[in-house]
Specification:
By secondary structure, the protein is an alpha/beta fold. It has eleven helices and 15 strands. One of its GO terms (biological process) is fructose metabolic process.
Length: about 400
């Protein structure tokens, strides 16, 4: 039984595409509504009913405006989506209210992947939007410092850069509290896209968060269509954050609406259970339901246990490595960066199981090293760090 997906390049999922969040009432401070996510099947979410719209012009990065040198004309891997600030507690195992202090860390899954690829020696670009504020310019500078092409980054004068507070349990797992009301990443417009940058890429990578509301949904669909029409390999990591969606059904529908256009999909065990409505994520027959006819590679990450891989010709498992987890934020993104950096250099890996397994071993180590430090982007490993760690990985 195949899962049913909507047309990948269809209009918005409904006439009312605005996010609905539960409201937390703050009487002593003017704070935006927040979305709280617990990394377990039991999810408590928030939100607000009406998202304001902004009509101001967005700025693109340029030498004249920002003092940033012009980025290169192309990149092997272009990542589209959100970039934000993670606030990670300095002490694990405490609730957000109990945390004595937080470490500010740049993050956002697609941005993490872009930086991860660059750290590994690859060529990457990021397309998205941040607020025209101190955090937004800080994030733009972080992309530059990590040699990520940031020519596709836009600044919104009417919305702030997104923030996420991350609680670390004693085992390194996370709970999230998001500030998006709306944040700038949700307001990226189709006309703001650098389509030439996307068309010139070897791989176009994205998540699902930009599908939640307009105008970012239309921008996302247009970017994916431009990439597909140009023969670019499409990579998709749904990166489920259920409280940011109006409902579980809308999340499932939204994630599956672009499922059939992807060439490579990376999912977690939790996401398999969610998309199949509770079926066993360890059952290969269940996983195969997610394998659409045009898919080249389906990857399932299992944390410290490694990953599984499925293609039309073969399937298998590559074990992970055991490390002491400090913060699991960004581990899946580091894994994606690891495998995409290999595929950008040689896409024929997909058809050669032995070489694919070596590439996935490399990706597993990328993920493992990332959990040994706090924050996502700060913890992403260099290529040399991964190669050094591989020396101790059993063949």
């Amino acid at each position: 039984m195949a899962l049913q997906a909507a047309s990948p390049f269809s209009p918005a999922l409904s006439s009312n595409s605005r996010i609905k969040l539960h409201i937390f009432h703050f009487k002593t401070a003017r704070l935006p509504p927040i979305a709280y996510h617990r990394s377990s099947p039991s999810l408590f979410c928030t939100s607000s009913s009406n998202l304001p719209s902004f009509s101001g012009c967005s700025k693109a990065l340029s030498t004249a405006d920002d003092g940033f040198p012009e980025a290169s004309a192309s990149a092997d891997v272009v990542c589209l989506g959100e970039m934000l600030i993670d606030f990670v507690p300095t002490v694990s195992g405490l609730s957000l209210s109990e945390a004595p202090a937080f470490k500010k860390a740049p993050g956002g899954a697609p941005a993490n992947v872009a930086v991860g690829i660059s750290r590994l020696g690859g060529s990457s670009a990021f397309v998205g939007k941040v607020g025209e504020d101190e955090f937004g310019y800080m994030l733009a500078n972080i992309l530059k410092e990590n040699s990520v092409n940031n020519s596709g980054l836009r600044f919104d004068p009417g919305a702030r850069t997104a923030l996420a507070f991350v609680t670390l349990r004693s085992d390194g797992e996370r709970e999230f509290m998001f500030y998006r009301n709306p944040s700038a990443d949700m307001l990226l417009k189709e006309e703001e896209l650098d389509l030439e940058l996307i068309r010139k890429a070897k791989i176009f990578h994205y998540g699902s968060i930009s599908l939640i509301t307009e105008p970012s949904r239309s921008a996302h669909v247009a970017a994916a269509k431009a990439a597909k029409d140009s023969g670019v390999l499409l990579s998709y990591d749904p990166n489920l954050r259920l409280p940011l969606w109006p409902s579980a059904d809308s999340a499932r529908e939204g994630i599956l609406s672009i499922w059939d256009i992807a060439d490579i999909i990376k999912i977690s065990e939790e996401e398999i259970s969610f998309l199949t409505q509770g079926e066993d994520p360890y059952d290969d027959a269940v996983v195969r339901k997610l394998f659409h006819p045009n898919l080249k590679l389906l990857l399932v990450t299992e944390g410290p246990d490694g990953c599984r891989y499925y293609s039309k010709e073969f399937s298998g498992r590559v074990p992970g490595i055991k490390v002491s987890a400090v913060d699991t934020t960004g581990a899946g993104d580091a894994f994606v960066a690891g495998i995409l950096s290999q595929l950008a250099a040689d896409q024929s890996l997909i058809k050669d199981e032995a070489r694919l397994r070596e590439a996935l071993k490399f990706a597993n180590v990328c993920g493992a090293l990332t959990v040994t430090e706090r924050g996502a982007i700060p913890a992403l490993p260099t290529r040399q760090a991964v190669l050094d760690a591989l020396v101790n990985v059993p063949v």
